[in-house]
Amino acid sequence: MSSTRTDSVNPTRSYPHFLWWGLGEATNGGILFYVWMFVLTAISLVGANAWANQVAQGMIVTGMTDHVSWGLYIANFTFCVGLAAGGVMMVIPAYLYDDEEMHKVVIIGEAVAIAAIVMSTLSVVVDLGRPDRFWHLLPIIGRVNWPMSMLTWDVIVLNGYLLINLHIVGYLLYMRFLGRKPNPAWYVPFVFLSIIWAISIHTVTAFLYCGLGGRPFWNTALLAPRFLASAFVSGPAFIILVMRVLRITTGYSAPPGPARTLIQIIRVAMTINLIMLASELFTLFYAGGAHAASAQYLFFGSHGHHGLVPWIWTAIVCNLVGTVLFFMPAALERGGIRIAACVLCIVGIWIEKGMGLIIPGFIPSTLHEIVEYTPSLVEWKVTAGIWAFGFLLLTVLLKLIAKVFAGDHVTG
Amino acid sequence: MNNDDVPADKPRGTSGPLLPILNQPSTRRTALKVAGAALGLAAFGQAISPLWSIPENISVDEFLQRHYKELSDDDKQRIFRRLEAETKQELGIEVTIFDPPPIPGVRFGYAINLSKCNGNGKCMEACNKENNHHRGVDQSYIRVLEMPKGSMDMEQGNTTYDHAVPQDDKFYMPVQCQQCENPPCVSACPVEATWREDDGIVVVDYNWCIGCRYCEAACPYHARRFNWEEPEIPADEVNPNQGYLSNRIRPQGTMEKCHFCLHRTREGRLPACLEACPTGARVFGDLNDPESDINWVLKNKRVFVLKEELGTRPNFFYFFDS
Question: Is the pLDDT of residue B196 over 80?
Answer without folding.
Answer: yes
